[in-house]
Amino acid sequence: MPRIATIGVYEFDAASFLRALDAVGITKVVDIRQRRGVRGPHCAWANSQRLQALLAGAHIAYEHHPELAPDTELRHLQYRDDARQGVGKRSRVRLSPEYVRAYTEGILDLVPLEPFIRQLPVHGIGALLCVEATAQACHRSLVAERLAERFGFEVIHLEPTEPAEFDLR
């Protein structure tokens, strides 16, 4: 059975991020962010060029797939729901039903996944990368779910439990 992992940036530092990837044998990180910059000094390691250098140093391949990223309008749809719920994007624990529908119909249903799957590693595991700490609060969970439903992938969510720890779900 093919496997795919998901991982976010928030609540990891560079060292714990690499440990999480290594723990499950990640050989390629697939960045599905629209904007590949992260604000704040604690996440500076995850800005595109620094992240790519970090991964190269660990012998982990990197690819950017912007076709799977939510556009600005979709992100703002989720931000409006976050505001109604009184949560910030770093404390969100779920995606709004409106966002899930709009992302699924506007992106996931339109992007052919077969070419994407062919680019995943044959040896090791690919990891879908975005920023949210919790997979269920991020579009990467929707991509992983689609890979599981349509192509039989087993999904592993790598999530931090403490700054230097992580949880395999």
Question: Would you mind describing this structure in some detail?
Answer:
The protein is α/β, with parallel strands linked by helices. It is built from six helices and six strands, in the order E-H-E-H-E-H-H-H-E-H-E-E. The chain has a six-stranded mixed sheet. A hairpin with a 2-residue loop joins strand 5 and strand 6.
Which key terms come to mind for this protein?
169 residues; six-stranded mixed β-sheet
Radius of gyration: 15 Å
Euclidean distance between termini CA atoms: 17 Å
Rounded mean pLDDT is: 90
Note the run of SSEs as H and E: EHEHEHHHEHEE
> How many β-strands, per DSSP?
6
How do the strands line up in the largest sheet? 3-2-4-1-5-6
Oligomeric form: single chain
The percent range for strand residues is 15-25%
Which structural class fits the helix and strand makeup? alpha/beta
What's the helical proportion of residues? 25-40%
By DSSP (H or I, 4+ residues per run), the number of helices equals 6
Shape type: globular
Biggest pleated sheet: 6 strands, mixed
Question: Any low-confidence stretches, pLDDT <50, length ≥5?
Answer: none
Brief write-up:
This protein is α/β, with parallel strands linked by helices and 169 residues long.
List the helices and strands and how they pair.
Elements: E1 3-7, H1 14-24, E2 26-31, H2 48-57, E3 61-64, H3 72-85, H4 97-108, H5 113-118, E4 125-129, H6 139-151, E5 154-162, E6 165-168
Parallel strand pairs: 1-4, 1-5, 2-3, 2-4
Antiparallel strand pairs: 5-6
Helix pairs in contact: 3-4, 4-6
